Amino acid sequence: MITITKQFRFEAAHTLPNHSGSCKNLHGHSYLLEVEIGGVVNKDEKSPSYGMIMDFGDLKKIVKEKIIDKLDHTNLNDLGIYPTAENLVGWIYFMLKEWAEHEWVNLVRIRLYETVDSYAEWRKDASLFNF
Fold this sequence. Notes:
Blueprint: E1 2-14, E2 27-39, H1 56-71, E3 74-75, H2 85-103, E4 106-115, E5 118-123
Parallel strand pairs: 1-3
Antiparallel strand pairs: 1-2, 2-4, 4-5
């Protein structure tokens, strides 16, 4: 299987009221999201997406519409979930899952960096989560 990955950046704030440290206070992050999809390379020489699994521009449009536009410059506590990086990755997975199944592409990996050196990740090959 061939995969492609697109990165997205957004800014958002949240609080973790149950946290014992400073994260219980309102604070923000500059998030980096990576969405990786896999599939079969298009072999139709007459197709505009010939030689691709999917056009990067099309992937950008979908993720922007379904994820980035809903999260950028928001308070993540308004999502109705406890906004840890782990829960956000689960939320993103569910927001993209139906689209991916409809488009016949495989979600392979979703990685969300909360800081430059800390991230949570969903991977198809290690899907142990009960989301």
